[in-house]
Amino acid sequence: MKIYIEGYGCAAQQSDVEIMKGLIVKSGLEIVKNPKYADIIIISTCSVKNTTEQKILYRISELQKNKKKIIITGCLVDANYKKIKEYFPDASLVSTHRITEIHKVIKKLEKENKVELIGRKNIPKLCLPRIRENPVIATVQISEGCEGYCTYCSTKLAKGKLFSFPENMILKEIENAIKSGCKEIRLTAQDFFAYGKDIESNYLSLLEKVIKIKGNFFVRVGMGNVNNLIPYLKETIEIFKNSEKIYKFLHIPVQSGSNKILSAMRRKYTVEDWKKVVYEFKKEIPEITIWTDIIVGFPGETEEDFDASYNLIKEVKPDYVNVSRFSSRPGTEASKLKQLNTEIVKERTKKISEISRKICLENNKKWVGWEGEVLVTEKLKTFVGRNFSYKQIILPNASKKDLGKIIKVKIIDSLPSGLVGEKI
Ligand code: SF4
Description:
Elements: E1 2-7, H1 11-26, E2 30-31, E3 40-45, H2 50-64, E4 69-74, H3 75-79, H4 81-87, E5 92-94, H5 102-108, E6 116-117, E7 137-141, E8 143-144, H6 155-159, E9 163-164, H7 167-179, E10 184-188, H8 203-210, E11 218-221, H9 226-229, H10 233-242, E12 249-251, H11 259-265, H12 271-284, E13 289-296, H13 303-316, E14 320-325, H14 342-365, E15 371-379, E16 383-386, E17 392-395, E18 406-415, E19 418-423
Parallel strand pairs: 1-2, 1-3, 3-4, 4-5, 5-6, 7-10, 10-11, 12-13, 13-14, 17-19
Antiparallel strand pairs: 8-9, 15-16, 15-18, 16-17, 18-19
Helix pairs in contact: 13-14
């Protein structure tokens, strides 16, 4: 049987697609690149934003024109089951928590028209067959869900409460990835710094073991919330500082510069907490790359609240700001609040995106002239690499044989999104 699979969403979703491909091929089936030639079509969905959901719903209706059996999985199935079932009554539905049984669902579809595998099962998505998107990069999920209850978040509705995967399985997954030739390990979670809170472990204990694994590889620490980092701030800075394996990179969403809005979002930290983490890291590791996220237009956001977000970005100068317009997601508390005027939100989003891009470019300009080692990680339009600060470096004169290798580079130009380097 021929299977076509298409995925949307975050690193954890991409990892799910790699695992589903691995399980499908291991069960003797074939993955095809074109839905026309498939017997079964799988679409792995994302529920974070309305725009993403609309795009996916439209895509599924397009794929249905192939008149093939369709399996819908991913966060939309768990966060918005009723709607998906209503829109696509003939589709098979598989919870994001049950993707490790995808090959069994396909088997059943040989005899049945549709199958449903719904409801949570705590299964570590590790040490399973997988087909990597990129042989250089291993995305290693360390937990599912979180212990937050942010009022705007539909991921919570899909992923639920925190389930930390066992340390020994995470370490085994990384060892296997390194043996298979991976050079970059992306540790991913809904909240990296919440890891282990449900199993008497913590992210520090895990990181200490990861960096002891033999081999030449870099570790990218995933996105996390500062309320769970602050209890270990000193130790975390130490391990980042002292381990050459850990990219000097920190992705800590702030979401708003207004404490009033942060508390309405039920984010368990203040603006001051977030700034403390950023400034402590910058003091000890000046080349640290800071990524953050801002939501614009959360219900109740006044001009003053927005100015607080705008001024926070101007003051702290993060290296990348993922600016999102507030998206009222069904089933969330924030969706029941009075929504702001769309034009105002559009205007504010444009304003904060402009200042963010300007700051990112200014930060990147400081790297022009830098010379050093770069790991060539992927081929986009051109080859791209990362240096110790996880700076994205476009490498026009690198070639296929450099993929997965560390090369010497000189930075010759800067962009808002990264740097341009010359192989020397
Ligand atoms: S921490 Fe908050 S935003 Fe992040 S996944 Fe959990 S509920 Fe959603």
